[in-house]
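Note to self: user wants both folds in one dump. Writing first protein now.
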Amino acid sequence: MRLSEQLKVISTMDRIRIIQGKRGNRDPEHDPNAKILFCDYMGSLQYADAETEFLTRDPEVVRMVAHMEIRHKKFRDRGLMPPYEPEVTRMYEFKDLTIFLYYDIYIQ
């Protein structure tokens, strides 16, 4: 499946990460074999320009993963691993945890 075909079925309100490389055993931000090319709401992908030049190639999608990120709210105080985008408001917040969902789309 091509990237353009995959993006047609994702809602503009969903957060996506387009990643170049193979999915390993680590989160993509900590994997040396993966490079995150885009991370934002699907709707904003249509309006981005220089950072999304890879869209013109319409690469092959090799894998798509619904990636749930669960982190502690006080990750800094406790010395824990931070969320990928700590400045973005989480989708769901509980007493001491936050949850964020991304669609990770791996391309060649």
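First done. Writing the second protein, which came from a different request thread.
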Amino acid sequence: MDHDRQQASQATVPSLHERLAACETALSELRSGALSVRRLSICDDRGIERAAIEITDRSTVFRLRTTEPGPNCVEMFAHDSDDGEGPHVGVAVTRAGEVIGEFGFVGDAVPRLWLESAREDA
């Protein structure tokens, strides 16, 4: 091995050691149940996101998506109150990004079911 190749090889060793240590730490945290993320995305074999869990300071959303046509999605959500009415919890269905149905409730209100009006082209 020539001198330049040897130097390049040695320069990458610390980087590889650091990356391996980070992987070992993540695996250890995963085994102990201590892994913490704010967004988890699960993709299919083509790399298309099919499921996602997203947590923000005021809401939690779990989405399941189709890839064709649309995409279409079912979304379970729990949003903290930001207007004094109470938390908003429910399930929504979307078509191409537009909400077409929802079952949920806000605060102590009676649960409601809302569906998009029947469309001629549906």
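Dump finished. Worth passing along: Residues 1-36 form one domain.
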